[in-house]
Amino acid sequence: MRTPLLVGFCLLALLISPRFVQAQLNLPEPSPPATVKQRIGFTDLTIAYSRPAARGRVIFGGLVPYGELWRTGASDATILTLTDPVTLAGKPLPAGSYSLFTIPGRMEWTVVLNSHVGGHGLDGYDPKNDVMRFVVKADSSQRFYESFTIEVGDIVRNQANLYLLWANTSVRFPLVSNADDRITAEILNRINVKKEDKPGLYYQAALYYFDQEKDTKQALAWASRAVALNPAFNYLHLQAKLLARAGDYKQAINAARLSAEAARKEKFNDYVTLNNRLIAEWEKKL
Asked: How many CA atoms does the CB half-sphere of 172 hold within 13 Å?
């Protein structure tokens, strides 16, 4: 009769034998890895994470307890990598790679970025290595997310929102790249240092300041210089809008009329219509 010890040794030998190992099935990972890549302004953002599924379970307040540090995914820690400095949730963040952790709550989440990026799950996490923490609101998602999902959305010029989505929960926080600093520095260097006296440069600089709602007085000076060098209909149109923003509606109407006339000669009827619409609007404010 075989002893229990002998039977145990036989089972162990079977489990580690090459024949048994070769017989194992190759199955999909329960929490498959995913990578999100997005350029925001001039900054390349990469997020590497794993995507666990709900599979009928209660997620937040159940599988993921409230008030406890969560790896924000599965398997290895979620890693966020940035090629340039950014502002995250209103706080400056240098370029580099960071592990992303969260502390979910019913109404609010704490988001944690940590400099240790080699851990599996929470392994190696030390609050001493926290780079930043901030609190964001937890909302209901517009649909049910079976798999944990990280998205980059609402991308407008140099900013976007990062979304953490799972089950019926949505958490969002903003990211702003340093594109504005770089563009502003180039504008000032080319105009003030290199002294490039080109109408196209003045127009682009004024348009950028107009769109970003930066220093209307400076933008108007650049637009006016562009018009002085080349009274093109689009240059005049921008000058008119900047004059209106500065509160000088009389001069804005004059510039818009000149823009409409120049556009009509070049058969840009859309600009004619747009200028006439603005003139009618500004005349009411005189």
From this structure: 11
